[in-house]
C-alpha cells in the first residue's frame, strides 16, 4: 500500500474535524480509520480486542504490517 503524504493525512484530519463539528461522528470515525494506525496502538488493540476487531473496524494497519511483518496479525 502506498504511503500517505502529510498533505493527505492533514486533509483527512481536517475533514474528520469538520464532521465532528457537524455532529456526524460516524463520518468522523470513518475518516480517522483511513489514517495509518501507529504500530504500538495496533499491537495494543490486537492484545485487548483481538485481530477480528481490527479487521472488522477497517483500521489502516499498513504501518504495523511494515513494522511487525506480514504475519503479525495472525
Molecular structure report:
- The protein is mostly helical and 74 residues long.
- Helix 1 packs antiparallel against helix 2, helix 3 crosses helix 4 and helix 3 packs across helix 5.
- The protein starts with 5 loop residues before the first helix and ends in a 6-residue tail after the last helix.
Choose one word for the global shape: flat
Oligomer: single chain
Radius of gyration: 13 Å
Report low-confidence residues grouped into runs of 5 or more: none
N→C terminal distance:
19 Å
β-strand percent reads: under 5%
Q: What does the largest sheet look like?
A: none
Short description:
With 74 residues, the chain is an all-alpha fold. 68% of the residues lie in helices and 0% in strands.
Descriptive keywords:
single chain; mainly alpha; 5 helices; about 70% helix; flat
SSE order and pairing:
Elements: H1 6-22, H2 25-32, H3 39-49, H4 51-57, H5 62-68
Amino acid at each position: 500500500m502506498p504511503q500517505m503524504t502529510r498533505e493527505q493525512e492533514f486533509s483527512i484530519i481536517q475533514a474528520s474535524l469538520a464532521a465532528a463539528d457537524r455532529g456526524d461522528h460516524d463520518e468522523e470515525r470513518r475518516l480517522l480509520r483511513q489514517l495509518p494506525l501507529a504500530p504500538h496502538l495496533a499491537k495494543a488493540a490486537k492484545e485487548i480486542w483481538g485481530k477480528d476487531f481490527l479487521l472488522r473496524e477497517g483500521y489502516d494497519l499498513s504501518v504495523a504490517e511494515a513494522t511487525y511483518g506480514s504475519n503479525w496479525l495472525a
